[in-house]
């Protein structure tokens, strides 16, 4: 067992970085450009699962990371041992003090392709270094919050419980995955640590092993009802739901729970034909006088299966969703990228672009500001407009927005208000933003999602929400494209 | 910001558990059965991606977790606040001492569906509690090691570098994902922390941002060669690989690297038509006298794309593989489960079974021992035989193995040796196993994979490796099935 760091007792994530961030840092310093002020955008190009939007998440953890950036003596020793880093660079790291400005879209906000979710401005040696962790943090939580938002919408108001810890991709996949699932709208998580860390309710009752431990299912149910008469929830599919699980549950409700002065809470079904079994279970419970007992279902669910079983008339009150949520199984990668968009020279901001043979991979240059445009009529969001950093949208003038590729697709907007999309997280390295609680973020997210048109909310083939460039930024981009094209193509 | 625990300074994962492990624990105690000795198997039912086998991983982290199981005062306070746990249970947790026996298949071993990867024997209150973390740990690392093994095989001896940290599902997804990728055969990881924690080489050079920072690509390459003349690797696709990247690289090799007395190392291509670009790049480098300069490729690769581009004659020396490896994108869930298989009564081991309408979900009961059978002729693995715990396979007698479903499919094996598959990790709560290093595990894994027949190694439609039951265990299972079937169906 060779580990140097015990992750449970003093974990330092500063070195969770792609090694090239360090070779570049050392290179910037060697070439005398490490203090050049650079601007980076973190953004994504495509919504997973063909959806219409994503839900921003992970800002609180990003701040935690940036606030705690420190290289330990051991880190420095390790780097020295690689034999490629200058002493000047190592001593810079040893005395590292974060100095960047950082802006981000608040957690829970619906976000769209090609707009910056995080903007970093600072000495390139620093703004570069934080790339890996910005991407890792935002990519992961935004992926899961987005998936949770879809699943919760499919459940049409029924609570969705996050059950996936055992199938998560690593411990933090479970921990921050639970957090992101709540941001996306889940009611609670089975993960106990998530309650301790994020003050989000955790819950759970019994597994099949409880039932198997005893000689019969009936005995197992009796024991459980004895232990938890006031909060009796039974897992009824260990042997046979309708022939054994439901009748035994009713027996125990009659025999123990009701005589103790309580109402039983729920039954859970974790396998089999959900639609058929829940309809029959509902009928049997109702006939026995237990129409108030909830039916919980939890078997490889996602937004599509939930929609289907509800369409089929399944009688479900609560969904438990596991592996397909906690790993975003249908599309488990959130492809956020972090690109240099400008540098400062003599106090002026010079935009930079990354060309590609792939049209979609060409970046939007420059230090930006994004406005979300809402119509005053019903507060629905109409479009996001990406501007240069010093542009102001005048709400009293008609606003012309246009597609950045098919520029003849234009629209003049009146009677609107424009809300800047970003908040500032750090000012010259100092934190200046106080994260809301996870439950506050969940409420905010639900409200902001409601401001999207129904056409954008569709699971399949949603309307493409407009993310446009201001005329000024469009001109800047066009100029850069033309000059690079003349040079290289 | 509401967190109680700072994950970077004193992380305790004991509470990373599904809440129901705690409600069951409390229930076992209330009902006086918490000391009942129970046996649990952790196993999986299906190989991801339609492959022929998985690569076991995560044992070292599982041991670390089990060795450090402790409930802090804050954990106990939190649980007390839930108002459903008895003081007897809380005081048990406060004085928790792990007492179980644990066996596992060593990391790096090829493993197959339905055989136990981990076996736990102990008081049910403990053997139950560790479920979530056993599954989380083994599911995650086995998933990634298995995917890495596929990708590395596709590369046919060329080094595969793990590049995926930024797209991992959470910090541990990156950290332990890197580790598992090395177990599965990757040469190194871009994740610096992985080198520090697991003593596995990390590496990396430059990003597009380095190139963009300077006014021209040529200037950027010159600066890099000045900073790293002895180890010069250039990213050549920021603007145009063939018109700009390769010519500029050659200029800088000629101008700076060679005159400094070094040979340039490599060029990297991260976008575009890999086959065409690498062939042309190879030709241009060769013509300029740089046939020793390696070509690294890294753009959304997986085993299928690697196989395809190599078949097309792409000139690639090294692969960098990111998101599709670190998230096992094509199938991001490893469906390991943890099932009660036996209990002790009056010192006798009583097998237990979980029935399901789904044939594949019916469990194999009993406390088990697994033998891997190798033919003496060429040391290839023929079958795994799952036995009851006290069975011994006599290598001097012919061994009849048979399919557990189609029992007429039989085979008599002679001239074989039988190797027990498990090692013991804990004896009555004490660790008794010393994990090899990650690099040792990688070597062992490569050797064990070589002992599988080529038909089992295929990416698609591999031969089903035999995982059979001993006659004794088969009889036990059949008896339990018949008795449950009479009772419930």
From TrEMBL, chains A, B:
Residues in domain Nicotinate phosphoribosyltransferase C-terminal? 368-476
- Which Gene3D superfamilies does the record match to this protein? Aldolase class I, nicotinate phosphoribosyltransferase
Q: Which domain of life is it from?
A: Bacteria
> Any keyword Ligase?
yes
User: What metabolic or biological pathway is this protein involved in?
Assistant: Cofactor biosynthesis; NAD(+) biosynthesis; nicotinate D-ribonucleotide from nicotinate: step 1/1
Q: Which reaction does it catalyse?
A: 5-phospho-alpha-D-ribose 1-diphosphate + nicotinate + ATP + H2O = nicotinate beta-D-ribonucleotide + ADP + phosphate + diphosphate
EC annotation from Swiss-Prot or TrEMBL: 6.3.4.21
Q: Which residues form the Nicotinate phosphoribosyltransferase N-terminal domain?
A: 15-139
Which GO CC terms are listed, alphabetically?
cytosol
- A Pfam family (short name) is NAPRTase
PTM? Transiently phosphorylated on a His residue during the reaction cycle. Phosphorylation strongly increases the affinity for substrates and increases the rate of nicotinate D-ribonucleotide production. Dephosphorylation regenerates the low-affinity form of the enzyme, leading to product release.
**Which GO BP terms sit in this record?**
NAD+ biosynthetic process via the salvage pathway
Q: Residue limits of the Nicotinate/nicotinamide phosphoribosyltransferase domain?
A: 161-347
PANTHER family, sorted: NICOTINATE PHOSPHORIBOSYLTRANSFERASE
The family line of this record is: Belongs to the NAPRTase family.
Q: What does this protein do?
A: Catalyzes the first step in the biosynthesis of NAD from nicotinic acid, the ATP-dependent synthesis of beta-nicotinate D-ribonucleotide from nicotinate and 5-phospho-D-ribose 1-phosphate.
Q: Which protein, by its recorded name, is this?
A: Nicotinate phosphoribosyltransferase
């Amino acid at each position: 067992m060779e580990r140097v760091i015990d992750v449970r007792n003093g974990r330092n994530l500063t070195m969770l970085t792609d090694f090239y961030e360090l070779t570049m840092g050392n290179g910037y310093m060697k070439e005398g450009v490490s203090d050049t002020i650079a601007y980076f955008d973190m953004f994504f190009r495509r919504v997973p699962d063909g959806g219409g939007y994503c839900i921003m998440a992970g800002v609180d953890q990003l701040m935690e990371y940036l606030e705690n950036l420190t290289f330990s003596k051991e880190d420095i020793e390790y780097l020295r041992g690689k034999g490629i880093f200058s002493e000047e660079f190592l001593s810079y790291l040893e005395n590292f003090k974060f100095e960047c400005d950082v802006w981000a879209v608040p957690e829970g906000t619906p976000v769209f392709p090609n707009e910056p979710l995080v903007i970093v401005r600072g000495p390139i040696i620093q703004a570069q270094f934080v790339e890996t962790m910005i991407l890792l943090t935002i990519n992961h939580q935004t992926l899961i919050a987005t998936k949770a938002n879809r699943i919760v919408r499919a459940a049409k108001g029924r609570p969705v419980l996050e059950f996936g810890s055992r199938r998560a991709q690593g411990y933090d996949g479970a921990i921050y995955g639970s957090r992101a699932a709540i941001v996306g709208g889940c009611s609670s998580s089975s993960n106990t640590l998530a309650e301790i860390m994020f003050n989000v309710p955790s819950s759970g009752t019994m597994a099949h092993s409880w039932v198997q431990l005893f000689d019969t299912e009936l005995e197992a149910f009796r024991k459980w009802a004895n232990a938890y008469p006031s909060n009796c929830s039974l897992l009824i599919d260990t042997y046979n739901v309708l022939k054994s699980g439901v009748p035994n549950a009713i027996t125990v409700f009659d025999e123990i729970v009701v005589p103790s002065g309580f109402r039983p809470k729920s039954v859970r079904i974790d396998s089999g034909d959900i639609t058929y079994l829940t309809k029959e279970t509902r009928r049997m419970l109702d006939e026995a006088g237990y129409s108030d007992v909830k039916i919980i279902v939890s078997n490889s669910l996602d937004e599509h299966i939930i929609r289907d079983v509800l369409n089929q008339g399944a009688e479900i009150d609560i969904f438990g969703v596991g592996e397909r949520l906690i790993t975003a199984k249908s599309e488990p990668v959130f492809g956020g990228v972090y690109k240099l968009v400008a540098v400062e020279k003599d106090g002026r901001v010079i935009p930079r672009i990354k060309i590609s043979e792939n049209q979609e991979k060409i970046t939007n240059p420059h230090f930006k500001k994004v406005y979300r445009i809402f119509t005053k009529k019903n507060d629905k969001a109409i479009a996001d407009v990406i501007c240069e950093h010093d542009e102001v949208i005048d709400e009293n003038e008609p606003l012309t927005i246009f597609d950045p590729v098919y520029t003849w697709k234009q629209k003049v907007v009146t009677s609107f208000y424009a809300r800047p999309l970003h908040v500032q997280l750090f000012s010259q390295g100092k934190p200046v933003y106080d994260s809301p609680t996870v439950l506050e973020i969940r409420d905010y997210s639900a409200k902001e999602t409601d401001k999207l048109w129904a056409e954008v909310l569709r699971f399949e083939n949603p309307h493409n929400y407009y993310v446009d460039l201001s005329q000024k930024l469009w001109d800047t981009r066009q100029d850069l494209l033309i000059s690079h094209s003349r040079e290289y193509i």
